[in-house]
Design goal:
mainly beta, four-stranded antiparallel beta sheet
């Protein structure tokens, strides 16, 4: 069964870094654009970053220059390197393919 599994979330102080990973199984990764989304309490889910199969990236304005999305097509992995984290980055982060969502991983940034 195709699925996406995120890992790497946790608690970090403002200014710190975290690296999220998303492992894809099945055929959902093949040629699929992938993305990271986040949802904070009381807010709608929002796009953080996306990457096409060929590596073209797109970022939300709020994370440009701080976050980097990447993928390893051979390993069926997608990553989100998050630097200079801010308290407002606190949210559940979700990995998404063209057809599937992961279960989410909590990121908490303390001030």
């Amino acid at each position: 069964q195709a699925q996406l599994v995120e890992s790497g979330g946790g608690l970090v102080q403002a200014g710190g870094s975290l690296r999220l990973s998303c492992a894809a199984s099945g055929s959902i990764f093949r040629f699929s654009a992938m993305g990271w989304y986040r949802q904070a309490p009381g807010n709608e889910r929002e796009m953080v970053a996306t990457i096409t199969f060929g590596g073209t990236t797109n970022y939300a304005d709020s994370v440009k220059g701080r976050f980097t999305i990447s993928r390893d097509n051979a390993k069926k992995m997608v990553y989100l390197q998050m630097n200079s984290l801010k308290p407002e980055d606190t949210a559940v982060y979700y990995c998404k393919s063209s057809t599937n969502w992961g279960q989410g991983t909590q990121v908490t940034v303390s001030s």
